[in-house]
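Might I ask for a little of your time on a matter of protein folding? Here, with my thanks, is the record as I have it:
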Amino acid sequence: MGKKTTNPSSEGTPATKVTPMMAQYLAIKRDHPDALLFYRMGDFYELFFADAVTAAEALGITLTHRGKHDGEDIPMCGVPVRAADGYLEKLIQSGFRVAVCEQTEDPASAKKRGAKAVVAREVERLVTPGTLTEDTLLDARASNYLVALGRAEGQWAAAWCDMSTGEFRVMKCHGASLPALLARLAPGEILLSDAMLEAPELFETFADWKSALAPQPARLFDSTSGERHLCALYGVAALDGFGEFGRAELAAAGAVVEYLSLTQKGKLPRLAALSPVLESASMAIDAATRRNLELTRSFAGTRKGSLLAVIDRTVTGAGARLMHARLAAPLTDPDAIARRLDQVDFFIAGTATLEDLRTTLRGFPDIERALSRLTLGRGGPRDLAAIRDALRLVPKLRDALQQGALLDAPDPAIGALADGLGQHEILATRLAKALVPTPPPMVRDGGFIAPDYSAALDEFVSLRDESRRLIANLQARYRSETGVDSLKVKHNNVLGYFVDVSERNAAKLTDGFIH
């Protein structure tokens, strides 16, 4: 189970002893007692009380104090917003959950309400091991699964989702096969009802997954609610078009959707159509056998030295994740195996096609994860550029497949792969026109919209750049007139523009300057 932190209560504390900001913090913290609260204050995320003590120890950062509460110093530590991903990675790997609380209004707007008004804040995201999307927090060559276990009418089901790519599957299974399934998926987080923890027959099943368990209220696994959540997700009145689902499957898949909505504060990621998986479609390999075979991990627990490391020659993150998934779940259906081998034979026989495809794919960005971040409102200019660059390469992939299917070994299945790539010329052209060749990583960095794409934006950029030139020329003139080479023209939100000189040079300024 994830590690928990204590929550200081402000109940019974006289209002005069709690600052407005601390009252806001305590109210938000009460709603998230099991997570470390990253409380946004300007350019930093601050942590207080037990959260600060815990985070400072886990991250190896300085623990300080700010103010008092109930007569005691308030422990505090903080991390810069720009470097937050690195700290989040350490905390998630250590088994913590993090509630990210952002400022939802401009400080200037808060001041208009009064000198003591507090900037509005709210938690916009819960970061948990199974709901990561940032490349810095994920292994590019492995999936990061969130698994939910459902049980109804004496049947079991497991649903799993990789929020960073949109993969979403569900499988009806026997309770005895759960350990093998968990070993196959290696989930970052496992959702289950509180009651399941008390089931004696599941004690051994969860023994190896204690750190990944995330018990939830039983209401999260209600099959009727689950069906309603799934229908709302896909905008349909019924799920008949997706397949046949029993109550256990609806409970598990619905729990995944509701948990994602809870942790992302209503912003659901792009999820693929829910795909039912037959338990008999792949070989069940228990954890001990999987370990001894060293399929995806060596005895040392690393990828190096495993069978996967030996045979993986993929050149993209998506390809590596697919290779990992296929090796972890060997097929059992002879027809499915034959179809896969036919495709392998096509590429082996068509050497030229294979090399053309590999050359093109080497420049293919990870658009699965870029799309997920964009749909959550968490993407940046480089995610848009990844979509642009990928769509530009689609025609090359399609041509290589179609030519190979005609010349090397005619195969309708390969032709279907080429057709499945779709036509995206209009969007690719628009993105190419809208973005600069190499955008910055963050929206706040600016400068990622190409010149001539928006006349209004070009006018604002011109005004900004001209203003900068005027200020630079004014600074040069003042330096020349005063003889103070270190003089600077600066700006802040309190004074506006002002002239800055050292105390030693202040006497050199003429009467035209006011201190």
